[in-house]
Amino acid sequence: MERTRSAQSPPSDFIRQIVAADTASGRYGGRVVTRFPPEPNGYLHVGHAMGICLNFGIAEEFRGRCHLRYDDTNPEKENEEFVRSIERDIRWLGFDWGEHLCFASDYFERMYECAEVLIRKGLAYVDSQPTEAIREGRGTVTEPGVESPYRNRSPEESLDLFRRMRAGEFEDGAHVLRGKIDMTSPNMLMRDPVFYRIRHAHHYRQGDAWCIYPLYDYAHCLEDQFEDITHSICTLEFDNNRELYDWVLDNVGFAEPRPHQYEWAGLDLEGAVLSKRNIKPLVQARVVTGWDDPRLATIAAYRRRGVPPEALRLLAQLVGVSKTGARTEEAKLDFAIREVLNPLAPRVMAVLDPLKVVITNYPKGTSEEIDAAYFPHDVPREGSRALPFSGELWIERSDFEERPPKGFRRLVPGGEVRLRHAYVIRCDEVIKDAGGRVVELRCSYDPSTRSGTGAENRKVKGTIHWVSAPHALTAEVRLFGRLFLDTQHEAEVAEDGGVTAAPLNPGSLVVVRGVKVEPSIARDPADTRYQFERTGYFWRDPVDGAGDHLVFNRIVALKDTWAKRADVEVRATVTAEPVVATAKGADERPRPRAVDPVIAARSARYRDELGVAADHAETIAADPAFFEAALRTHANAPDVAAWIAVDLRGLLEGRALAELPFSGEAIGRLARLVQEGRTSRRAAKDVLARMVSEGGDPERLVETMGLAKVSDPAVLGGAVEAVLARWPEKVAEFRAGKSSLLGLFVGEVMKQTRGAADPEATKRLLAERLRS
RNA sequence: UGGCCCGUCGUCUAAUGGCAGGACACCGGUCUUUGGAACCGGCGGUGGUGGUUCGAAUCCACCCGGGCCAACCA
Known about the structure:
This protein is α/β, with parallel strands linked by helices.
């Protein structure tokens, strides 16, 4: 049972759980409708890709649908190019919105009608203050706002003004439409938010049909409503907006079941510039070559770099969905890319930093062809290519060391290595130029060691890649790294619009020219993704590598445990980081909270005279009526206090005690039932939960829910035996010393008796039974 | 110093009052004509203090830490 659940179960994050629950309860009649709502004001990035996977993924899994909806309510930032790029990116990721392509701008007329409804209800008004006055009137996070002098304009006057706003009678900024909510709300967004503003601007789809445009908080929930969205998923920073989302929908008059908003953390990828606000200036100032510069984290950039879409989808799965604002390591993306490419990419050889090797005993001027498999033994794919071999080769400069470090498994003077797919060679002579730089290696090969002949299985230290010099193609290779070394620089560029570009990571783009590649690649489709053996995954740059230009992008490097080890050794000798001892253990006792003096006095009395625990006393003192009532039916103050301050409080979900469908007396009676041993405390909690949702009488509920306490050893014993029989392996584990399993057994007995069992008695029985 | 959200291995994420599990990373080993892959093993976690409970990562209180909110952007 357990085993099957572990690896292959579909991901179920908190949002999918909500969707599943809503589907099961029939809340939306089984419908699941999500949406991906980009604003067409830039290219999508990898963070959006995660949102796309979430929204389209949920729609697929629950057999619902997902709309692609452009949130195009701001005429000044949006355009057709971005619309096209977004569609291409989503399709490339492998998702399809079918016929559900939507534009917020198509709803302008309906949104306008909703605004008139709010005005007529007295819930929206036209404000004629200048922008700065509105801003100042809003107050700050710690100070309430002040009401606009236009706030009490009659609905008739607001309606007239609003219609004239639409008709184009006013200049930009002359008036706005605001919701009439609460200028003192602790949520800034509820302080009479602006719903409409005047902008005499050309909209890329609506042209000049409109000169008033709705703002996000007003528009977005209506868009969801118009499309019958069930689950409106957005990122954490919209958390504060949810209250307004609900306000608009409720007050325009949309009834349940209506759309609801849920927030998740989104993706924060280490080393990636992840906001359109920060990417745009980089593009505009030509710090990068365009929206698809492979150093960017846009979907277009990943596509151009050669990252397969499946890798991004895998990343989404690996990262998961939660509300924890968290940063994902680059290593996870790298892993996802390799994971997808490893079983797919044909292996070929390329030498990035060539060093000449002359095979002195190979017949001069001749060559031969080796049939070399495209895939290693553990990738079940067919195919091979002809690989030319000759007496002049290129090998990687880093594959030779005159003075090898410990553990070096490559070519050294007098040493041997195997050339991948070919022969074993020995380095006989090292040739240097006047500056002492190695320029050529003179080696001899052993003709009997040719790969695949099976005749020779000589043990050599290692295998290196190579390319036959006379047959080699010359290419350019581009290696990519993160754009900025730190986020400070990223912010700088965004602030100054990219004019004075902050320093880029010098390693963000490394262009390697004179790379030697085996000739077989000339015959391959241009979009082949290769593994250059021992180096990484590459493909031809679709822009600069077109036609005869051999330009390869490195998609991701291979994992390189040797380089890592060498790197560690170097760092260890260079920087011995000072260890600074920090003083710990300073007095960190919590300070008491400031409270109203009346409440404080009451709290002290509860604590000192009635023996109530201090923090319970504090909680109860704020609202004493309920507590005092409970005391009348159950005179044990500490007990009653715990029930109210702990158990009941956990069920309140923001409601006040007075709103509950039962009285203080009732909870007192419930507490008494437990103390008298007539029901278990655990069962009483279930009763309390029922009382909170439906009201009712504790004595009768204990009866009807079948929760009268069971401590009869005969009955309990039966349940115990049943549980032990069901978990033989766990019993064995327990007896082997895993004592934490006792809780599991108790829990199972409790479950079996629906919480009625006396847990103490159960525990005693269990302990006895397991000892024997 | 207002309101809201969030704190689980280094990182990401499960456990929804009952066995703290998985993945990435890292470290070892096996295997290997890629220092790749695969396989095996290891390291390592509930922010703190109290409380409720037979039993707390989970519920309650306080504290600490991080994030979001004061565009006529989304």
